[in-house]
Amino acid sequence: MPIIAPSLLAADFSNLRHEMGSVAEAPWLHLDVMDGHFVPNISFGMPVIKALRPHSRARFDAHLMIEPADPYLAAMAEAGVDHITVHVEGNAHLHRTLQSIHALGCKAGVAICPATPPEALSEVMDMVDIILVMTVNPGFGGQKFLHGQLAKIRTLAGMIRQSGRDIVLGVDGGIDETTTPLVTEAGATMLVAGSAIFGRDDRAAAIRGLRAAAKPAILAPSGE
Prior knowledge:
The protein contains eight helices and eight strands. The two termini are about 25 Å apart. The protein has helices at about 15-20, 45-50, 75-80, 95-105, 150-165, 180-185, 195-200, 205-215; strands at about 5, 30-35, 60-65, 85, 105-110, 130-135, 170, 190-195. It has an eight-stranded parallel beta sheet.
């Protein structure tokens, strides 16, 4: 059963507290932090996250689409996030960044864009807690799923098995009841979904629908 992480980016920004409450069934809440520099959009930051934190029991899963990310890690932790995911792209000192996130008491994640090969994470498999595969180009919600990323998900699932560690393998972008079985068969264990949840009147039913659409991972034969 995959973890469902509704993306607040697709919610009604004029009523975020209510929107957050409407997805209380989900164990994680995905928070896309954008700077208009690393990605061509601006979303929200620490003051908004800090204001929302007392009103949810979900684990706050912060996805930092910002550059640089390191100067803001401590402020993110102070705002109350549980996980901090940074991008491998443009981060020359990823190992040190993951160390800093762990030192702040947060789970450390790494996101990987569509054009980046999975091997870019090979040197941090012993440190990362969450891997987030972008199945769209980051920066905007509502984009179409990139089917070419399924092979990357399968490769990373194999890398996780070889590591022997309990690493969450997430996917973000174009996730709905049609793409959910594809990514879970490939090995995804966490699904970030925006419009597929917040675009529905009954958000709880949308979350249950994604869970029901998931299929068991098809593992590659040993040695592949």
